[in-house]
Every structure is written in structure tokens, then in C-alpha cells.
Amino acid sequence: MGTPAGAEDALSRYRSPLVSRYAGAEMAFVFSERNKFGTWRRLWLFLAQAEKSLGLPITDEQIQEMEANLDNIDFKMAAEEEKRLRHDVMAHVHTFAHCCPKAAAIIHLGATSCYVGDNTDLIVLRDGLNLLLPQLARVISRLAEFAEKYADLPTLGFTHYQPAQLTTVGKRCCLWIQDLCMDLQNLERARDNLRFRGVKGTTGTQASFLQLFEGDHSKVEELDRLVTEKAGFKRSYMVTGQTYSRKVDIEVLSVLASLGASVHKICTDIRLLANLKEIEEPFEKDQIGSSAMPYKRNPMRSERCCSLARHLMTLIMDPLQTASVQWFERTLDDSANRRVCLAEAFLTADIILSTLQNISEGLVVYPKVIDRRIRQELPFMATENIIMAMVKAGGNRQDCHEKIRVLSQQAAAVVKQEGGDNDFIARVRADPYFSPIHKQLDSLLDPSSFIGRAPQQVAKFLKEEVRPALIPYQSKMGGKIELTL
Question: Which residues form the Adenylosuccinate lyase C-terminal domain (predicted)?
């Protein structure tokens, strides 16, 4: 089916759902054309200002003209220039020069395309990480409140997705929080390790700038320092080829992929708990779970997180392969790939964090369902306690063990073959052999006696590890997130 003649509206062209459907406005702007090309112009301004301060013949009038036109971008002209020149950077040099005729001669002076391209990418990576960090901190904060609230609520533990010893709802949540705290540290490290490419020239030797400053190495070094500082970085990479090392992209996307793994695990757990009807994500009054089955309450938010987290985890393969095939000082087969994978990684991370925050702010717990499942499994878990109580009451350990073995197998048959409830404790109560401990059975079956130090672990973990990690983000905790879709 062909495109209708004259169809120019947005709905007639593919748009990535990462932007059109899911991503937040701030992250979408960071990776927008306007931000990208506006940053290019600012980098050209920083370069001209620094070159002027170091003695090159650049006038105040030229600087002022550039400052006045930083956001005055004629995108139509730039597109026409790129179509003519087949070079995006030179297209924007010409477009900037058109509205800055006095400064035209000194725009991009001594620089190569990667001066604006790579330096802008590093600014965007930094800004993207600065958006993700408080988002992640908010998720951790919301989950910490949930963990604290349910620190003492016993729940059945699972290993191999088979019933295991009890834990608490809050302690299980702390497993999620711990992974996210590791992600928070990794994101901070990735951001803090970022450097600026700076002014390095076509192959990284700074030869063009050394020529501009007539062999004065100190001025070239100072130029690099000044531009780096103006761009908000403390350091630049001391050595580069034409580009900064593409291993930097690996470092950044690897921590985002790791975040994706954490979110996928958390939301998978929530989906499994929803199936057990123990915990559910928010479900709105008019929300429809299924077009065919009106009763369904599908965990669609958690499913969305898992779906997008898988995409995020796969994106690490792009920078890995790109870094491995960069020949010598640079090849251009990195460019198109990076336009896709860098933006998609940050947009996807933004989406899964905002969705997970929404989930964590509205988790619903069903204590009675949780208690019922505990009561179904706890009798078998309490057998060792029953044996110890009988021995203390004067019984023989081996005789007691055999009695319990027979009764537990009978109870298991009722559960598995007849579909009935676990009646093991009823059988113990009915057996005169266990009469010495009949009055102790309720206390022996108290779920709180099976959770070990879970509540204490929650309190210590939140106090000593989680809350200190959130201190830098206290002013950015914000309100609740409402999803539009």
C-alpha cells in the first residue's frame, strides 16, 4: 500500500514509539535536533571566545553576533544545505554564518567536525545521566517506603519458584532496592568518569591549533582547558583520535543495560506475585485488562517494563561492535549506528524508570492471600520445630520423625491427589501421640517465628545503605508520576 499523495501529516510517517508514546519531555529534548544543533552553536561560541582570549583576531562584535543567534536556527536552510553539501556539520556552519555574516569567517576556526559532533555527544550523555539519576533515586525512595511498611509482614519465600522458608514482603523488596542502589552507584560513576573531547583537531594531534597559535604549545593547551571549562567539564581526554574512544559509549550503555536487567527482574517478580494474587501493580478504575475477558487485571505496566528492558539490554551490543571496528584514528561507520543506539538507550531507560516509579507508588498488598498461602505450606516447614518440642516433652526423636513422616505424606496426598487443603496440623492434633505439645502448636506455627532477622535486616539496610545514597537527591524527589498510556 503506497503513501497517499500529499500526505505530510505526522500520522503518515513512522515515529519511534519511544518518543511518540512513552518517553518524558525532558529526555526527549536532550536528544532532540534543536538541542543538538543549539549545542553545536554554543560550542562554536566557546571556541571563538577562547581563541579571542588567547590573542586571535576575533572581535567583540563577532562574539556578540554569535551570542545573539544561538537559538536562531533555520532548520529548513540547514536541511537544504546538507542535501547540497552531503555534510551535516558544514551545512550548519553555513546556516550559522548566514545569520552571523560578521562572524562567518571565524566560525569553526581550526576545528574538525568531531569538535561539535563528539563534544555534543558527551554533553548529551552527561545531561542524560543527570536526568536518569534522580529518577532512579525516586524509585529507590518509593520502594524503601514500601519495604519499611511491610518489613514485618511474613510471606512465603521461593527458591526455584518452589515454596521455601519464609521471608517478609519488605525484605524481598530490599533485594530489589539493593540491585537499584548498585545501578545508582554505576550511573554516578559513569557520569563522573565522563570527560570532554575538547579541541583536538582532525586526528587528535591539535596540529591546526598549533598552527593558529604559531607553535605556542601552552596556548593550545590553554585553549583546550578553556573550552572544556566553558562546556561544564572538569577534564578532557588527554589523547583522542578524530573521535573520543568509543569505549566511552560502552561504559555508559553497559550501566544502562545493567539497569535494564534490574528492572526486568523486579517487574518479573511483580508479575509472578500478581498471578499469586499477593501483590498487584496499580490498576485504575476504568482500566481494561482484556478485550475478551472483562475480569482480568493484567500487570501491563510491569510487562511494559520487561519488554523495554529487554530492548535496553540488547543495545549494549552496538557500542561493543562499533568500538571493535574503529580503524586507526576513526572510521565513519560508527556515526549512523550511534545516532540510534545512544538515544534509544537513554529514552528507554527514562521510560522504564518513570513506569517503575508509577508502579512503586501504587503497589497493592493482599495480606490475607499471603497468609493463606503461608498456612498451606507452613505445616511442613514446622515439622522440625514439632520434633524438637516433642523431644523436650520427653519423646523419642526417631519415633516422632516416623510419625510425622507418615502424617505428612498423608496430608500431601490430600493436597496433590484430591486438591484439598493441607490438613497436616489437623492430623497432628488428632493423634494422641502428640498430646504433650497440642497446646504449643499455635505458637509453633506462628509465621513470625520463621522469618529470622528479616525485619532487622530491612531496618539496618535502609538506615545504613539506602538513605545515605539518596541524600544528594533529596531536593528532586518530586511528586507521584501519572502515566498517560
Answer: 378-462
